[in-house]
Amino acid sequence: MTATSESRSPSVDPTLEEVVETIDRHGNERTSLMHVLRDIQERHRCVSPGAQSLVAEVMGIPRVEVEGFVSFYSFLSEEPWGDIVIRVCDDVPDRMRGFERVLSAFREAVGVEVGRTSADGITLTTTASIGLSDQAPAALVNDVPVTELSTDKVHRIVEALRSHRDPKKLVTLLGDGNNAHPLVRSMVKNNLMHPGPLIFSPVSRGQAIRRATRVSPAEVIRQVKAARLRGRGGAGFPTGMKWEFTRASLGERKFVICNADEGEPGTFKDRVILTERPDRVFSGMTVAGYAIGAQEGIVYLRAEYQYLRAYLEAVLAQRRSDGLLGRDIVGRPGFHFDIRIQMGAGAYVCGEETALIRSCEGRAGEPLNRPPFPAEHGFLGCPTSVNNVETYCCIAKILEEGAAAFNEYGTPESAGTKVLSISGDCLKPGIYEVAFGITLHTMLEMCGAEDARAVQVGGPSGSLVGPTDFHRRICFNDLPTGGSMIVFGPDRDLLSVVYAFAEFFADESCGYCTPCRVGTQLILRYLERLRAGRAEASDIEELRRTARTMKTTSRCGLGSTACNPVLTSMERFPELYAPVDDHPDAYRRSFDLPRAVAEAERLSGRTSRGEHVEQGYHA
Amino acid sequence: MPDTFTFLMDGRSVVATAGQSILEAAEAGGIYVPRLCHKPGLVPWGACRICTVRMNDRPCAACTQPAVPGSVVENDTEELRAYRRTLVEMLFVEGNHFCMLCEKSGNCELQALAYRLGVTAPRAPYFFQARDIDASHPDIILDRNRCIQCARCIRTSKDLDGKNVFGFLGRGTAKRIGVNARVRLRDTEVDLTDLSLDACPVGALLRKREGFRVPVGDRLYDLEPIGSDIERNSP
Question: What is chain A's mean pLDDT, rounded?
């Protein structure tokens, strides 16, 4: 290594003084663990075994729990990475737009395989959805999103990184709206194709809070219920009811948490909301604090959106100086509420509310058993209300203009609008805020995809539907969605889509419960056989049995929906699951002889000769 | 008894106290709900999902779900037995379980449950994952090949031994038992008197030099099916 690269990259092990200083800066509490380890990771390119021991000792946490934490989150690493980490997004919309080509170009340009680091300190890896499906293929270079990648662009990026080693300098053309804000300075585009009447309407800052504090907290909850607001993250639980439970729960401290960890493949709406309407999100959280009697708010921001953090912190600071956060908010004595940002570190499961709470508590993001529910026993054991970014916007809007104005839009069961993230085979991918109740037909017309073969509604944890279902409506009691809508054109190989989703869930399962941990892996194995043309009727039956067992017995929503790509495609596209014919001589086609003897060949150092092995029994 | 109530399990009336789980109440009434990660005295965990029952038609883990007055619970139905068989098979194919070579055979809850549920050969493909063995300690062996991620050792060490010898590392199918030291079990505060050493339902955590103290054939589940002790308490 040259002298310059040594000065650029400090030793992998921090000193004790440095660890103490980092911990002091964040506060020596378990809830600071994520930020402490993220800082160490950033500075030393890893959280080395030595660093883990020091953190454990200084914070008084069992070492095995620190190691468990580091090994759980994909943005933390025990092995040193380069000072530049390129994470190429391998989500389905990216695969549809040339991910393979782009990844090859990166391999060539950086000169290493995926998962490896070049001699000059560039690590190449892949990652799940980074919230840029509408401008795929995309990647993160450290925190900096790079979008609409082509092979040429990849070579230019790597060349530039090698000359200046500053990912921020990769941004030459700024995106629209607040993407060009001095604290964001990103090439990301909003692609706000259809801003609707509620979420993306102009914000009158502070109005929602002033209106809320003029009435009692109970009256605020009554208004939210009158608006028939249901959670926008996907589950659709009535927000007013959740607040009522949280308000009624006993506790000195209560918490309001904003789930800004949108990890569902194909979703990116919260990114655009946070970029363009952060004030509305924070207003909604503040109203929630007033309604349930909480003084502390937390935004759990996914690691992939780190590039928005400084900007969001500035918005929060502005609100503090405007009297919209802090003590005696809007001049109302005794109404204190503040918001802090808690970073994630790359784990889809943390979008599940109890896993998110665990993560905030400085633990691996494993979901909790319910009951008790967070409304009763949430963050640090205190009553907690976790709501989605978009839900908080709806709340602010309800307070700004009243419940009646809100449920002017939508259907009786699904009031208001829904922000859709549309990606895939369509002419105009991007953000569409539509009234609940529109049909898929209408949506496909809007985004320019009348010839679609299928739509993945609600992302992989939702359902895959075909043209016979395009008359159905986007709403809670027909086709519910958290916002992700991936369109597949007439020539798409749907089985490879199902497989890609299966890989995603296998990577993201937390591993706590048997059906999800093992089932996600089994699905992959059966689908591999199917794609190789080796699946027998019994394999298809086993696949179905595995998926149904996951659906019924999994511990949390990740496991019980991880089987949806298989189950819904089996139902609507049964032709994908055609088994091979029975072979007349009764050899099992699913048996792959060359593969079965490969390990033995490797160990014995010789190859098995003969056509029966080279070609398989039934070539 | 003022704060007791009843619910119905497979047509039988079961008495429960407030806060008691379905599994505990059933067990007290002599009904066996198959389970692996549950162990009396430990915090209910809800990981293996073998004890999945239907309460008022909704599936839930009997070990973590508090009993509800007047509820109707299904336990020993063909549907649930089928799920349980699948879950047991999943654990067999995920790990490397060679019963004929395992010291725990006959005392192993996974093996015993497979026999009780009628699992013969798993239909799913084996994973054959390479997993680490930690034989560093002079008297204890940790063989991750046989681990089913039930966390009984973790919970016992934490809650009963007052230590933190074990913990989970990683996620997904790479999830594994780690030890509270930089590398090896021998560097932890583990002690031969720790209750955690006897918490393992399978042969992942064993004391060395105790092989064949009880001959195969005379072991716990060689003599009667798992759950028989519970069912003997049936009123």
Answer: 94
**A209, A324 Cβ separation under 8 angstroms:** yes
Contacts 24+ apart (CB under 8 A), B207-210: B207/B139, B207/B140, B207/B141, B208/B138, B208/B139, B208/B140, B208/B141, B209/B139, B210/B103
Q: Look up tokens 């509820």; give the residue.
A: B71
Task: Determine which of B20, B78, B128, B171 to mutate to test the interface with A (most A C-beta atoms within 10 Å).
Answer: B171
So what's the architecture of A84-172 in CATH? Answer: 3-Layer(aba) Sandwich (3.40)
Residue B159 at interface with chain A, using a CB cutoff of 8 Å = no
pLDDT, tens digit, 9 for 90 and up, residues B197-207: 999 999 999 99
Please tell me whether the peptide bond between A371 and the residue prior to it is cis, using omega within 30 degrees of 0: yes
Bond from prior residue into B125 cis (ω within 30 degrees of 0): no
Distance of CA A261 to the CA centre of its chain: 5
Q: Is the dihedral of CA A346, A513, B170, A25 positive or negative?
A: positive
- B172 has a pLDDT exceeding 70: yes
* CB within 8 Å of A89: residues ≥ 6 apart: A99, A126, A127, A128, A129, A130, A132, A136, A137, A138, A139, A140
**Is CATH 3.30.70.20 the classification given to domain B85-209?**
yes
Pairs across A and B, CB distance < 8 A = 127
Contact A564, A460 (CB under 8 A): yes
N- to C-terminal Cα distance for chain A? 52
Cβ distance B173 to A546 less than 8 Å, yes or no, reads no
CATH fold of A417-488 reads: Ubiquitin-like (UB roll) (3.10.20)
Q: Give the closest-approach CA distance of B179 to chain A in angstroms.
A: 6
Question: Helix, strand, or coil here: A58?
Answer: helix
Say how far apart CA A345 and CA A364 lie, in whole Å. 10
